[in-house]
């Protein structure tokens, strides 16, 4: 077993054991922190498909994160006893079922990724970065003006949505659901990276002209990766909104896009467990240093600077003792 695989196994074991220990010690807040880390890791896994496998530097992934969140908020608000949408008599059937909400979030964010990707991939380099940022800001300002669903104040959901056979109001069962979905996303990333599609996508990232020469369309490969990436990030957004029982335009801000990208870079771009390591470190620093100073991002910046300068493979690459991408 390589050092990277051993590190991945230990990290996964920690994600299982720490919440169980917190439950035994009656510390639900620790479980909530772990849930936040797992959900952010899921969003980062989504971005890692576009960035790590496809080489697509997107600053608009918060749009998919927010679309997933609003998919949850809108469906759940229509299922609640009160009616927050007097201005919008839309015929939407509300639901409090997590599987249905997840499906809607995946489809909505995947469709948005298809449209945004089809337009953005007409460009490359810094132009691609800026156009994805522009699309993200368009969605952000739209939600601010969407008064029917809270506008700038956001939308509160007073009771967490349900999953058949589980008490999702308890911290541990909901954490378990999020962890299972994260593991499924990691499995998908691993399968994609090792599949013919993943190999072709990697080749399109490195030498697009050669991929086109053998009859493959590099743009189509990138678009498929971008859609899958957006769909997974949208699922994470739905879970994040359910965790907080609140959705707001802040989920679609460019700062959120930057935060998701930081998780990938911190853990290791293209690494299987890179987003997980990045999310765990980020949430831990936020909790420990956030109580000391509101300027805790300074320390995060120093760590990120060190990673970029001396550990191009991120935390996982540093542990593995080599740079590069997916193993």
Mean pLDDT: 89
3D shape: globular
Question: How big a fraction of the residues is strand?
Answer: under 5%
Could you tell me how far the N terminus lies from the C terminus, measured between alpha carbons in angstroms? 12 Å
Radius of gyration: 19 Å
Sketch the topology as an H/E string, one letter per element.
HHHHHEHHHHEHHHH
Q: Sketch the major β-sheet.
A: 2 strands, antiparallel
Number of strands: 2
The spatial strand order of the largest sheet comes to 1-2
Structural class: mainly alpha
Residue share in helix: over 70%
Question: Low-confidence parts, pLDDT < 50 over ≥5 residues?
Answer: 85-91
Q: What is the overall number of helices?
A: 13
Please explain how this structure is put together.
The protein has a two-stranded antiparallel sheet. It has helices spanning 3-24, 28-53, 61-79, 98-120, 126-144, 171-194, 196-206, 208-213, 218-244, 254-267, 274-290, 297-310, 314-320; strands at residues 155-156, 246-247. With 327 residues, it is mainly α. The chain has a domain at 30-253.
Short characterization:
It is found in: Cell membrane. This protein is mainly alpha-helical.
